[in-house]
Hints:
The structure is a single chain. The protein is 37% helix and 12% strand. It contains 8 helices and 5 strands; from the N terminus they run H-H-E-H-E-E-E-E-H-H-H-H-H. It has a 5-stranded antiparallel β-sheet with strand order 1-2-3-4-5.
Amino acid sequence: MTETINGDDRRFPPALADVSRVAFDYGDEGEGVDFEPYEAFYPAAETTDWLRHWTANHALDGDAYRVFGQDGTGGLAALWCVRPGLPLDAQPVVFMGSEGEVGVVAGNLSDFLWVLADGFGPLEAALHPDREARPDAALSELAGRHATTPRRPAREIVTEAQAEFATFEDDLFELCR
């Protein structure tokens, strides 16, 4: 049974622990996956510090985000704790780039695993969901072990999540000073 989140839940889900052991290859002339997963969530204080600098709003805290990886430029992937009372693995995955790019990647951790299996990292899914899928056998196997949702194409998952959280970008930019 998965526990519901509270304000300080920073237990790394087993699926993310397995993802953290994957070596993502950004080679292939930049057509790979630009993702460096962490072995644990960013500490709460560092998440708050990062969000305050990203938004230039020093009144914010980072409690709504569980940062679990980055791209090569320092853009961050996070679980966005926007669904009160639901466990971390039921929260949407979002991307916040180092240059202000943002996007919803998946509606939950399970769907995020299928996005990875289709050859998309958080940056690619949020900003380039129409690129050609490049399924990865090892990530497909990982997703098959952990996912609680059926496999679907990444493009479908991203489109559905972005429609569900259509105001994410606007809401985030309203926090900026």
